[in-house]
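Postdoc handover notes: sequence design on the structure in folder B. Input tokens:
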């Protein structure tokens, strides 16, 4: 077992200890036994909810479309329930877990698996590019995760906006977040997250998941969504940062007109008059709201204002 070094992520490789047959972690009773045997306590700050439904696990693995030559990055493996399923399908699984108290449990539940590596690290600080280079020949990896709801958006957008070498992201998220990711113009769920996700990836809602599929039960419904990375963005834009600043300004004051939202933004230098004229040149009304514009229209408006 690799020794710990505070200067690097703590890494543990399965297969070095023999604990006998792998426990059936999807059985709620067995899950409780494993947790209690290690004296583990759930930490609210990590938003920990462990899956205890075999059908949901199967849906996640199917949605992720794991192949034998895939390297899978699992974020938040918990006690290893989904890790076991992923390891049976993938060439290798790297499971990144922030909670150090879960590492001894993972060492036990994944001990027989020689294609699993456990890393005790914050995923927001983990070098995914280096992982792809060193362990996957530079090829894109597949991400699978049961994410804490409070940090869902920062993790997903970090993977997408930073152009990490990721082929797809299959995640369990709060249902309303999943609905926002796939929403289109004019709907109540449509917003900045919808546009950002759809610029970088194609969203596919794979399953809705009720609270009773977790231990402990969350207060809200969940959903499994797969984001398949676009080879090229679906629209061309001269300046991504300017376009997303326009999008943020449009939805920060959702009920205001686009002209007022952009005019009130601290990020953007454009006056209301400049925005109104740009909209007119695009054949759009000065009274239009951001919630009605498509991704392509935001890209065109960004280019027009930057001309």
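Designed sequence:
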């Amino acid at each position: 077992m690799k020794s710990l070094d505070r200067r690097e992520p703590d890494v543990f490789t399965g297969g070095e200890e023999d604990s006998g047959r792998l426990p059936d972690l999807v059985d709620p009773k067995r899950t409780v036994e494993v947790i209690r045997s290690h004296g583990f306590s759930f930490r609210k700050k990590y938003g920990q909810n462990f899956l205890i439904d075999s059908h949901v696990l199967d849906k996640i693995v199917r949605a992720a479309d794991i192949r034998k030559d895939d390297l899978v990055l699992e974020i938040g493996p918990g006690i290893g329930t989904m890790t076991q399923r992923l390891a049976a399908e993938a060439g290798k699984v790297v499971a990144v877990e922030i909670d150090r108290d879960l590492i001894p449990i993972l060492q036990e539940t994944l001990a027989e698996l020689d294609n699993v590596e456990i890393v005790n690290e914050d995923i927001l600080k983990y070098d995914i590019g280096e992982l792809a280079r060193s362990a996957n020949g530079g090829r894109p990896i597949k991400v699978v995760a049961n994410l804490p709801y409070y940090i869902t958006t920062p993790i997903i957008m970090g993977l997408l906006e930073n152009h990490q070498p990721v082929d797809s992201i299959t995640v369990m998220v709060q249902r309303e977040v999943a609905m926002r990711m796939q929403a289109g113009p004019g709907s109540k769920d449509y917003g900045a997250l919808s546009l950002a996700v759809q610029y970088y990836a194609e969203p596919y809602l794979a399953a809705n998941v009720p609270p009773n599929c977790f231990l402990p039960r969350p207060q809200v419904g969940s959903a499994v969504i797969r984001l398949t990375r676009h080879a090229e963005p679906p629209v061309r834009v001269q300046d991504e940062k300017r376009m997303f600043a326009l999008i943020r300004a449009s939805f920060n004051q959702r009920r205001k007109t686009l002209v007022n939202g952009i005019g009130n933004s601290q990020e953007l230098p454009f006056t209301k008059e400049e925005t109104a004229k740009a909209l007119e040149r695009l054949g759009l009304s000065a009274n239009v709201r951001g919630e009605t514009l498509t991704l392509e229209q935001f890209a065109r408006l960004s280019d027009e204002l930057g001309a």
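Context for whoever picks this up: The domain at 240-306 is CATH 1.10.8.100 (Helicase, Ruva Protein; domain 3). Don't rerun without checking with the PI first.
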